[in-house]
Amino acid sequence: MVGVDLETGLRALLVVSVVSAAAPFVCALLARFRVPQVVVLIIGGVLIGPEVFGFAEQDSIALVANVGLGFLFLLAGYELELEHFRERSGRLATAGWLVSAVVSIAVTGLLAASGFVHAFVPVALALTTTALGTLLPILRDNHMLEGPLGRFIMPAGAVGEFFPIVGIAVFLGSKGRLYGLLSLVVMCVVALALAWLPRLARLDRVGAISRQQEHATSQTTLRLTVMLLFGLLVFASDFGLDVVLGAFLAGVVLRRWAPGDVEALEGKLDAVGYGFFIPVFFVSSGMGLDLGSIAEAPARLVVFFLLLLAVRGLPALVLYRRDLAARERVQMTLLTATSLPLLVALSEVGLASGEMLPENAAALVGAGVLSVMVFPGLAVALNRPAAAPRPPAASILPPPQPDH
Hints:
single chain; mainly alpha; Na+/H+ antiporter like fold; globular; Sodium:proton exchanger; Na+/solute_symporter_sf
């Protein structure tokens, strides 16, 4: 039985790796349309999944996909500069999320009153999320982290991930709100202690060994990083918290904890994460998309898709009017409205509690997939450099002839 399961898992990983390897070439062929690789990976997952060709099952790669989700949030936390939250960009990010939360509560209340949704809290939280981890490779590949937009989108994306995770821990924890809140506090204290550990303890010898072996076959810093990631993932899971919280905090800790060549470590994490684990997560997300439920009630997907844009994205048009040009504010609107990983988690929580309608769970995840496929691509298209201005008409006239 174990041999059969192993063979099934290996075959599934082979099919997923084919999709992953083909994605950059597909994007290159579609370069004029600026299609993000994430979109190709998700569509590839839909095609190889049980809803279309049935080449692989999502359950057979669940563990690897969850590790990919962990790496996604680890790198998002690693890229986050906490100093932003002492600046105007951090205050605007927090204000933007609070505005989205208030609007989301009002909108979800209306939907619940009309009978459109039953799971009030999961849906309300879902409409306030931003997939910073999903956006990160797109932003980096298109050099959009540089300049004013990058300075504002990173804090906005961070609060769009962290605050909904806090909401999941407090309001949707299986052991009650008080336990969820205490678990969250303990988790943050542990992360803070890990961040300060190298400063408080005499670990000079350990640091020296790590630096000496970081580029050798030992790969000490990379192994320590993976240990930190899995440690916080397990810790979060044991306390009934969403594992993405552990991964996100691991990235924040790692930025202050890693010894040795930090830039080289970042390159190695990119190679391990984006080279294998993270693509598996996106392909798995496509494989798990319930196309049947979406086809039966397509209007629900459209409603959630538009609400993601309106509730989470539109406040950016007003809040950043003094700081960003109109084009960049539209980009902020599109990018902050992009969501996927937390929608999957919230849908699973809603289905497990029996409160969320199956068609709403499928539509919510489908709206997240659609947001990833549409919004970042539009934002990238807006990022194209403006065409060189045409010379004024006077400059193309022939020079005046001298009088004789």
